[in-house]
Amino acid sequence: MTTKPVLGAVDEDAAPLTHEQLRELYSLMASVRHLDTAAVAWQRQGIIPGYAPQLGQEAAQVGSGYAVDRTRDFVFPTYREMGVARAMGLDMVGYMSTHKATWHGGMYNPLESRFAPIQAVVAGSVLHAVGWAHGQTLSGKPDGERGVAMTYFGDGASSQGDVHEAMNFAAVMKAPVVFFIQNNGWAISVPTERQVAGGSVAARAAGYGIPSLQVDGNDVVAVYEATRSAFAHCRAGNGPVVIEAMTYRRGPHSTADDPGRYRTLEEERLSAGEDPLERFKQRLLDDGIADDAFFALAQQRAQEEEEAIRGGIEALAPRPGAEMFSLVFQEPTPTLQSQATAWRKESEHV
Amino acid sequence: MEAEPVLQLSMQQALNRALDEILADNPKTVIFGEDCGRLGGVFRITDGLQAKHGEERVFDTPLAESAILGMSVGLAMAGFHPIPEVQFDGFAYPAINQIVCQIARMNYRSRGTLPMPITLRVPSFGGIRAPEHHGESLEALFAHVPGLKVVSPSSPHDAYHLLKYAATRPDPVIFMEPKSRYWQKGPVDVRTAAPGQALQDQALPDAGMDDGGRLTGARVAREGRHLTLVAWGAMVARCLQVAELASEDGIDVEVLDLRWLKPIDAEALAKSVGKTRRAVVVHEAPLTSGLGAEVAQLITQHCFQTLKAPVERVTGFDVPYPSGDLEDEYIPNIDRILFGIQRVLEYRRG
User: Fold this and answer.
1) Rounded distance, CA B268 to CA B274, Å?
2) CB B174 within 8 A of CB B148
3) Interface residue of B26, B110, B114 to substitute, partner A, most A CBs within 10 Å
4) A209-243 pLDDT, tens per residue?
5) What is the DSSP code string of A121-175?
6) What is the mean pLDDT of residues B142-164?
């Protein structure tokens, strides 16, 4: 599969990725793969109660997240964007804390990281991206300082009405939004052909007059270049773009899922396509951009990083119960304050 | 302003003036929704605001309530103070996910880093013989949601000040406008205080109109000795009528305008009913699990020792909001409220 270049040629700064950047992309993918696999193990070991793996989506996530400019853009994720978070340089203990059940939304700072809180009503944040992006239009900031919103969702979420409202709003308002769909073939147990009418999510964009492209989601460079073009398109004031990255969820929907109930191992093997990590490694080797020593080092660093994150997660104490009350409002209500007082008296005996 | 501080305005005019001043005071305020730009809204609450403040500050959106509210989240994240309008109360239902799961939770989810200073204006309640979905009473639903605050003005003066107050708060406020009162005129003291501050200590022309500018709780709309009618929105005016009629029979009725439906001013309830020792709650919403139950419980909790009779409720019925021909049968009328008063006055312990 190749990227269909349907956007205007607006990416004036586009330059081929340097060897250093290509190696960085690989290192990020290796880190994400290792952390993702480890997080499933953490769940089995009882370190975290649950996790939503993204095995097989490393290229789609790292490639797109790598295109984000954290000084001005903003990303609106669902709960399966660990690879995007890592590529954007988030505090990964803060990110993983939501899977530790420490705090809904995660413990990272969304304003500093430019990564909105994790949440599970998957199409909900797609509209937030449109609002934020329209805010860029209204901001009065000079062209170069205005940001682009990138919203992530899957083939399953694309069935929700909010996605359609978001695409319509964004197109009417010419909001600078990149709708980044990771079509991983499955919405829990329902395959894309039973989830998405019209053949693809990207095909829907035409109905809203939004340029769209499908990209090989297992090719990190193709994903990066498609995303970079989409950002340039938005920055130039051309309105939104839809990118559908075709990939495959190799593992379960979540650690509570049992894919064996709805697909066979044979189907998985045939449908998954090339492993994005192995494929990129081979390319770097073939092009003489990286050698075995580099890959060994990347693997070693990924493991060290994962161990540090695991340590951070294990060290996370439960949040003080008082936060349950104090973070509902900026200005707490008297009722909530009295509930907090009663709770303290009855639970902490103070 | 000092020359003519008290104007005779309808609630529609008072709200319009308040929005005009809010836009002038805070450049980050934006008003949007269906038809609120060029038309000025179906009730003309935003009349003339687009012409005066520009199409970027006051704008029409496509017809999609979930998107209007979802967009508000993104705009708030981008530093704006959105004042979205849901055209009619019943159209808030399609947006309920954005209101309940997104607007109400974002401050909590983000640990206070993403406040939601959103004032959602909802033309509310019945009484105008409108078609289905144009006369709903959603206060119990909204008040039940953690993270939301709910207010409903009953007079032009309160409408003006409560809206200005709500629009300066850092938390989401559902502003329920009693649409059957839009065209009733009353005195509005437009002397303004600093945002969020009480009005200056100025005697207002109608002592019954205001409680000295305190905008955060209930107000005594009429003082009385024998029982308290608790009401909000359009029911306040009706209860004041009832109180006049009852006074002809020597019954001295106090009318407490609750104003804030969340947080409820329990102190004001306790004070009023502590004095009168009898209470009737009047609301347009259906009886079962209505806000009247919450009010009755607060009264019981605070006034159990002194209550002369169980708290009575006079409400709408547990039926879908009826068509215009049956509206007068549904909304608490003078007779039904008088029966409610009779029940508490004649109550004898068995």
Assistant:
1) 9
2) yes
3) B110
4) 999 999 999 999 999 999 999 999 999 999 999 99
5) STTHHHHHHHHHHHHHHHT---GGG---EEEEEETTGGGSHHHHHHHHHHHHHT-
6) 97
